[in-house]
Amino acid sequence: MTKALERIGYRYPSLTETQWKVSGLMESNNEKRIKAPLVEMTLKALPTGADKSDEFNFVCTKDELLELQNVVREAENMLAKLVQK
């Protein structure tokens, strides 16, 4: 399918910017315990042929961020193996 898409000129968007910050309620008047922080991420990608980037925002917990890290690492390893062939 990828080859067919390439024949008609489709290319995946290019990642142009990544921003992140740690946030979350740490203490309030009503609750004295510390809540788990959240990571807010913003990814900007430039679609093929476009002049303006699309922005994708999401929030994840520590566990979700670790899972995302593992998935990205697996993809990186797969790409490295494919390049070596």
Structure write-up:
The protein is of the alpha+beta class. It has 2 helices and 3 strands. A hairpin with a 7-residue loop joins strand 2 (38-46) and strand 3. Strands 1-2-3 form a 3-stranded antiparallel β-sheet. The radius of gyration is 19 Å and the shape is elongated. This is COMM domain-containing protein. It holds the Pfam family COMM_domain. Residues 11-75 form the COMM domain. It comes from Panagrolaimus davidi.
What's the arrangement of secondary structure elements?
Layout (H helix, E strand, L loop, with lengths): L1 H6 L6 E10 L14 E9 L7 E7 L1 H23 L1
Antiparallel strand pairs: 1-2, 2-3
Q: Nutshell version of this structure?
A:
The protein has 85 residues and is of the alpha+beta class. The chain has helices spanning 2-7, 62-84; strands spanning 14-23, 38-46, 54-60.
Please tag this protein with its features:
85 residues, elongated, 2 helices, three-stranded antiparallel β-sheet
Distance between the terminal alpha carbons, to the nearest Å? 21 Å
Secondary-structure element series: HEEEH
The mean pLDDT is 85
Shape: elongated
Summing up helix and strand content along with how strands pair, one would put the structural category as alpha+beta
Largest sheet properties? 3 strands, antiparallel
Supply the number of helical segments: 2
